[in-house]
Amino acid sequence: MSLIDKNIIITGGNGFLGSYVVEYLKNLGVKNIYIVQHNIFDLIDLEDIRDMLHWHIEDNTILIHLAAFVGGIGLNQSKPAELFYKNLIMGVQLIDQAYKYGVEKFVTVGTVCSYPKFTPTPFKEEDLWNGYPEETNAPYGIAKKVLLTQAQAYRKQYGFNIIYLIPVNLYGPRDNFNLETSHVIPALIRKFVEARDNRDNFVTLWGDGSPTREFLYVEDAARGICLATEKYNGEEPINLGTGYEISIRNLANFIADIVDYRGDVIWDTSKPNGQPRRALDVTKAERYFGFKAQIDFKEGVTNTIKWYEENKREIER
Questions:
Q1: Does the pTM of the predicted model rise above 0.70?
Q2: Would you please indicate which residues are annotated as catalytic (active-site) residues?
Q3: What is the CATH number of domain 7-175+214-245+277-295?
Q4: At CA 71, angle to CA 24 and CA 38, rounded to 5?
Q5: How far is CA 140 from CA 111, 114, 121, 213, 241, in A?
Q6: Nearest alpha-carbon partner for 82 in 130, 120, 44, 123
Q7: Each residue of 24-47: pLDDT tens digit?
């Protein structure tokens, strides 16, 4: 389908990923985009969801659900109940009401945290149910995985066109650099830049550095979501990633080198490592809707560091 003449509702459209999806759609020429404002419509509240759809539903409406309560290992450890409840309840209610209000197509974004802790790499979509997620982020991962079950059930019983995408860890300019809630790349960038500026002799990082991760630049993620919205209508969950895997230890050295931090790195092994490995099989995204990541990892990290350096004073207030 062409997206140009669609009415597109985006939850989380002011967030990190959502802001890039909105920009991509505008660059395509989409005119009718509605960003759900959290201060107007609370997606935990069923009546707010109904009000939002009542006022903004039109013929040919697509709903892209990006809103989430999300963060790194620290947030997952401190607020597992909120991560489970908020992500589950807003997704379950939104999908149900979107169907009842006649949304033409629903796009929901899951998480790589839903995969079992010991999934063979690269992670294939077929492995999603073959075990329990890594314990530190299981509540969040399971809440998101429930939405896949709901999507497939609503497709089977009602014929609702709902697709489910699984992006790997995202990063890029405008990311969350709050050390209490951020993911690994922005956290490392902030720690090393601050240590450099303060002339600290060492930086302490969680775990032992052995886990591996795959990262997807946020502009690539936005393009992948929009391509899937336009071209994919299947029931299978689809991975979005790059196929490039790097250890946290090598990632830390990589970022320290770019920001010119010359001190030592101390690994605090009393802190959790998280999932041992993460790397996605990304062949289906290319096969079904032509998505392939374009931004080189070094280029993406360099862009992110540059953005942080230019905005750090405001961020650190």
A1: yes
A2: 140
A3: 3.40.50.720
A4: 60
A5: 9, 8, 21, 18, 20
A6: 44
A7: 999 999 999 999 999 999 999 999
